[in-house]
User: Fold this.
Amino acid sequence: MAGTAIRRRLSWQRADVLAVQREARRAYRLSLRPPDWSGHLPGQHVDVRLTAEGGYTAQRSYSIASAPQQPGIELIVERLEDGEVSPYLTEVLRAGDLLELRGPFGGYFVWPAGDGPVQLIAGGSGVVPFLSMLGHHRATGGLRQVRLLYSARTFDDLIGQAELARQPSTVEVTVTLTRGAPAGWTGLTGRVDARLLAEHTIPPAQEPEVLACGPTGFVEAVANALLELGHDPIRIKTERFGATGGP
Amino acid sequence: MSFVSRGFTGRRRAVPAGRLPPGQYDVGDGFPVLSAGPTPYTSLDRWDFRVRGQVDEERRWSWAEFQKLPRESVVVDVHCVTSWSKLDTRWEGVSVDTLLADVVTAAEFVVAFSDGGYTTNLPLADVTDGQAWVVDNYDGRPLAPEHGGPARLLVPHLYLWKSAKWVRGLELTVEDEPGFWESFGYHNYGDPWREQRYAGD
Amino acid sequence: MTDPDDAVARRLDANAAAGPLAELFTVDLTVAMATCAGCGNTAPLAAHPLYAHAPALVIRCPKCAAVVLRYASGGGRLRLDLRGARLLTVTLDGAAAHGLSPVQ
Ligand SMILES: Cc1cc2nc3c(=O)[nH]c(=O)nc-3n(C[C@H](O)[C@H](O)[C@H](O)COP(=O)(O)OP(=O)(O)OC[C@H]3O[C@@H](n4cnc5c(N)ncnc54)[C@H](O)[C@@H]3O)c2cc1C
Ligand SMILES: [Zn+2]
Assistant:
């Protein structure tokens, strides 16, 4: 991947903000064009830095939502009411601005090599790195079995609906809503627990690579339940987002 | 390097001049939680507070005994080295003077030690004479675990990392022994008004 | 987990330290295997718990919770403490696969 990269660009650069568009009830999609970008692995993140007059800075990590095959990069940011950075990225930032970032980073929480089955488990904005992975899987015509279990608060909180709706037949997407479902909802409701995992994810006997991402509390509960079900810890990878709006 | 993110101000607000040490901002109502490790949960019947090291005799108080010691209330500003300050914080607890009363020692330093393995070093002269407390109450309520409960040290005239959370005792030492952050390049003394953040500042 | 939600919320995976560590290392240190100096446990650095709401990034052993690595940039200096790591192993294939070319 990113065959042109001889040395990764790790210093801060100012990306052009091409668009900031509403993605879900509290989430916005940022389309960015970094001047120096030699590609990324699906699942990697960037660090974003904001600088105030006087030099005060705040720095946060955001997963890349777009597939490596797509030009530029997209981030999807969920707005936290009392947050410092996410309200700026979702409400103040607009097309034409410059956004400082560096990356891509993180070679661990990335699309697994090989052709064995892959189970993705997302809580809230934790679905973002998986959008990049699924985009990559589709673009490369992968044949391996992939399942995504995605927990969101409400239907209006669902991120990546357009992408998730057009998946190839190798990919199965299961959504569960934790704070009530709209009339006519035929998907799941309720939190991700051992029972829900047992019924709606690839069983441990098939030895899937499992990636779980979302708010820290969600990820830790899922990881514990996966161990309970008998998954080998070697094949479980997690990415905790810290405090977020919740799944 | 003079890039500014259009319209970004961050979590800073104006405060009366002179209230904040250099380089600090006011967090207002918030009370950020800093943690370098998992929050320890020590049950009160296993909790004790010890004074040990260079002392004539070790002192130990169980939680029940600690509760019977004379208590003081203080209202102070606290300053974190990560650059936030919180004004007029209200604490209640036992003065370190009370805990060190009658201790005979040649020590000139103390190391505060905590559940979870955290340590921080201070000159003995900075925790005596009404400058430091072991507090178990914040803003009228028992101190929450994330803020250091059941009890933390409070040394408000130094950066807040000196106010060890989950404190379990003081070790009196003749030699100065750098603690968790002091051994990582943070300033040995940590006076916010002289902006002593890092070794050499 | 017995931590209340807000305490849990401050724990991350050391994967999130990849950016800061790249200020110092040209290989992605988070894909390295780290061996704890305390208990000898070996795991990918990225799979270690990371405490980032502190004066430094503090990476702890997933098994015994001892500090494995501390890293901070501030005051115009970069600081790294690796006392808690007995061994770091970087697989060059992995590094090459992640954008670095060991030959060249
Ligand atoms: C590897 C990685 C990838 C990520 N990817 C994404 C992504 O794709 N999309 C996304 O939306 N988010 C992502 N995140 C989360 C993101 O980095 C930010 O944490 C998030 O946007 C919140 O930032 P904020 O500045 O708005 O909120 P903050 O100001 O950081 O506050 C967050 C919440 O925590 C509380 N809080 C903050 N600091 C403290 C403290 N010291 N003590 C007590 N409470 C505190 C605040 O009150 C608030 O409720 C990712 C995180 C990581 C580590
Ligand atoms: Zn260990």
User: Anything to note?
Assistant: Residues 4-91 of chain C form one domain. Chain C is about 15% helix and 35% strand.
